[in-house]
Amino acid sequence: EVQKHSVHTLVFRSLKRTHDMFVADNAKPVPLDDESHKVKMAVKLRTEYGSVLHMPTLKENMREKGGPATGDPYGHKQYSGNEGEELEYVITGTHPYPPGPGVALTADTKIQRMPSESAAQSLAVALPASQSRLDASRTAAGVGEIYRHAGISERSQPPGMSVAMMESGGNKNSALVPKKAPTMPKPQWHPPWKLYRVISGHLGWVRCIAVEPGNQWFVTGSADRTIKIWDLASGKLKLSLTGHISTVRGVIVSARSPYLFSCGEDKQVKCWDLEYNKVIRHYHGHLSAVYGLDLHPTIDVLVTCSRDSTARIWDVRTKASVHTLSGHTNAVATVKCQAAEPQVITGSHDTTIRLWDLVAGKTRVTLTNHKKSVRAVILHPRHYTFASGSPDNIKQWKFPDGNFIQNLSGHNAIINTLTVNSDGVLVSGADNGTMHLWDWRTGYNFQRVHAAVQPGSLDSESGIFACVFDQSESRLLTAEADKTIKVYKEDDTATEETHPISWKPEIIKRKRF
């Protein structure tokens, strides 16, 4: 009959057997095998120094060494005609060795050769002592000495320290100088922004907002299926446009013609003539909700993006679909246009940003750094850069190839919208109603705003869907989930003394991804 043991006993026995098997060699270093070491060194010699083994050689000064050269301890073949002697390679160059100041050339030093250890030391002694070298020898031990005392080889230096040579004369008198870690430059001071007007009138979430080029009025689109036009100075309602049969997700006013373009979750893209306040064109083609649109600044082209994973390029006048930009694998949430290449930029729920070649209708670059959906992209009005917003980070990029600049971390929410003015104030608006204001250049977060919801609304209805600066950049408008439009302006009374920057030149820990 087989005796049954507990699992604990079986495991213990197994461990004991393993221990007994290897106990003889426990913690003993493996003895060095001469033959394998010879092979290893021969291979190393060929691979690392093979490119210089063919160079001509000179006899070493025997008196300097104090006798004939000792043989190679590893029995390596000498790669020259002078068998059995220690070899030295001639260095070809423009200047005789040494080039040290105040050291006359002798018959021996006129030949350009690799200096021996003793020759290098004698040269260092012969060089006139400079003040910097005297200071270094007074304040710091040699690198080799520090590491010898610590029992570490000179090669394995800590990454934070760099060896700065105090003189160029080949001496070993060097000091350990810590590398200066990159620090955030001091951000530009921006006055804080304050809420000064709340405009209500929509019966549903306000999803999108745009200011007309003349800065007289602005337009909003809402989940109540209407488009409303408001007077910018007074905040009074001027006009309501009906026609969409579902939530209006995007509006934009043309600077080249008296047209307003809108798109919505009803798959429709409409062109409104503002002289007659009527729809004059429809752009058919998207297979699902249209989430955003933008106009090209220099040609009559409209770009829309949709939940069908595509962006479409439309000819404004003929209503023709010029290109279908396909490549994203999930809904395209945002699209932006510019005159310079790349002319179209899209951000998607597949976590990527794509920069498009408008002429070919193909992707130029795909940026995959974000870990979560990219719902917002904004182009800087003056710099050749742009920013993208995602729940993981706001990232800044450089055109034309989408080179990464920096992360703006701290807005830990679903970022629905970004906008920036030419003064370098970047605004990010989030799904939880928070709004962060950043200095574009340094990525410093100088203000955080969480405005109260409209009376009668739930706290959960706090959410910012869109934000935009007016044309003068003195007003900031936000479209919110409590059915209001909030207008902010700079605090005129604030100064750098009353609102100082709480900034420290801290070490930047910028993540690449």
From TrEMBL:
Span of the signal peptide: none
Keywords assigned: Repeat, WD repeat
One Pfam family named in its UniProt record: WD40
Single GO BP term: mRNA splicing, via spliceosome
CDD domains cross-referenced by the UniProt entry: WD40
The keyword Repeat appears for this protein: yes
Repeat found in the keyword field: yes
Annotated PROSITE patterns: WD_REPEATS_1, WD_REPEATS_2, WD_REPEATS_REGION
Gene Ontology cellular-component terms listed: catalytic step 2 spliceosome; precatalytic spliceosome; Prp19 complex
Function: Involved in pre-mRNA splicing as component of the spliceosome. Component of the PRP19-CDC5L complex that forms an integral part of the spliceosome and is required for activating pre-mRNA splicing. As a component of the minor spliceosome, involved in the splicing of U12-type introns in pre-mRNAs.
Subunit-level organization: Identified in the spliceosome C complex. Component of the PRP19-CDC5L splicing complex composed of a core complex comprising a homotetramer of PRPF19, CDC5L, PLRG1 and BCAS2, and at least three less stably associated proteins CTNNBL1, CWC15 and HSPA8. Interacts (via its WD40 repeat domain) directly with CDC5L (via its C-terminal); the interaction is required for mRNA splicing but not for spliceosome assembly. Component of the minor spliceosome, which splices U12-type introns. Within this complex, interacts with CRIPT. Also interacts directly in the complex with BCAS2 and PRPF19.
Name the UniProt record assigns to this protein: Pleiotropic regulator 1
Organism: Odontophorus gujanensis (marbled wood quail)
Gene name linked to the record: Plrg1
